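Q: I'm writing up a methods section and want to include an example of the input and output format. Could you take the sequence below and give the corresponding predicted structure tokens, formatted cleanly so I can copy it straight into the document?
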Amino acid sequence: MSEEATVVDAGQTPVAKHVSLRPHVRLLHGLRRPDNWLQLIRFGIVGGSGFVVNLLVYTLATHALGIEYHAAAALAWVVAGANNFVWNRHWTFKARDGQVHIQAIRFLIVSLLALGFNEIVLTLLVERAGASEVAGQVLALAASTPLNFLGNKLWSFRAEL
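A: Here is the clean output for your methods example:
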């Protein structure tokens, strides 16, 4: 995950050289950019709206429509995911110029990886560390959000080169 940069020697004859930036250096540069922090805040707001959408769809599906709760949970996850995709594409990352179907597939893959990571952390916290289910989920979400954010920023919605 290294990125190349061009450096010019200060010797008598300027010569362009390519140097590789280490991932931790890229991370430090990224942490200093206010735009990245604003994107993270917008990402969190979108995630919060997705949480509300998920609960509303789940409640409507189970109570008003009588759908079995597992099916309702899957339906709610898909609707909330679509909500998050649209808002992240247009507002968080402003990636309107990319190919929507490629972005959607990548978004789904990142979401599933983050969900899997969340489930692993949740299981470890509840079954091994003795955390309550709610506290475990809060901590698991906190652990999986950076993975989700970086996956979407650097892959799903990255600017085409």
